[in-house]
Design goal:
The protein is mainly beta and about 160 residues long. It is built from one helix and eight strands. The longest helix has 16 residues. It starts with 6 loop residues before the first helix and ends with a strand. The model has no long low-confidence stretch (mean pLDDT about 85).
Length: about 160
């Protein structure tokens, strides 16, 4: 098992941190690491664990806009990874937030995914600047074939 963290990953990490530091506090960027303990999904072909970079903006207490890049630090040649953008509908309960979302991606551009059409995400997250989360991400037409993961997000704002 090897770790493949290249120049693009290092630049994206630095850009994520810098964007989070210079944008208004309501715009948050993050880096995350997550794992699917079963690794039996049919829609994402990355080695575990996986990482992500993202940006999010809550336009309302119950609505979040986001864009996210997903790839694997354990897999070489995964460029350009999976990229999607969309909206999440939030149900906050103190520091716990339950959400569902819909997003779009371009499978012709992305690498190592078998998505077809819009994506759905169902999840729960706990915390503020450091969030523990669980999420199921799948194509809407084949929700049962998606990926359920557990991880940690570190936010910059």
């Amino acid at each position: 098992m090897s770790i493949c963290v290249g120049v693009n990953t290092l630049l994206a990490t630095a850009a994520t941190i810098m964007i989070g530091e210079v944008t208004p506090e309501s715009v948050r960027t993050y880096v995350a690491l997550n794992v699917d303990p079963w690794d039996n999904n049919a829609q994402i072909n990355f080695e575990e664990p996986m990482g992500s970079f993202g940006i999010e903006y809550d336009i309302h207490t119950n609505i979040r806009l986001f864009a996210e890049h997903i790839s694997s630090p354990m897999q070489c040649k995964d460029y350009p990874g999976i990229n999607h953008t969309g909206v999440k509908f939030l149900a906050p309960i103190n520091d716990l937030t339950v959400y569902s979302g819909i997003s779009i991606n371009n499978s012709d551009f992305d690498n190592n995914d078998n998505f077809d059409g819009p994506l759905v995400s169902l999840g729960v997250e706990y915390g503020k600047d450091f969030k523990i989360y669980a999420e199921h991400l799948a194509a809407i037409e084949k929700i049962e074939d998606g990926r359920t993961s557990f991880g940690l997000k570190v936010f910059f704002k």
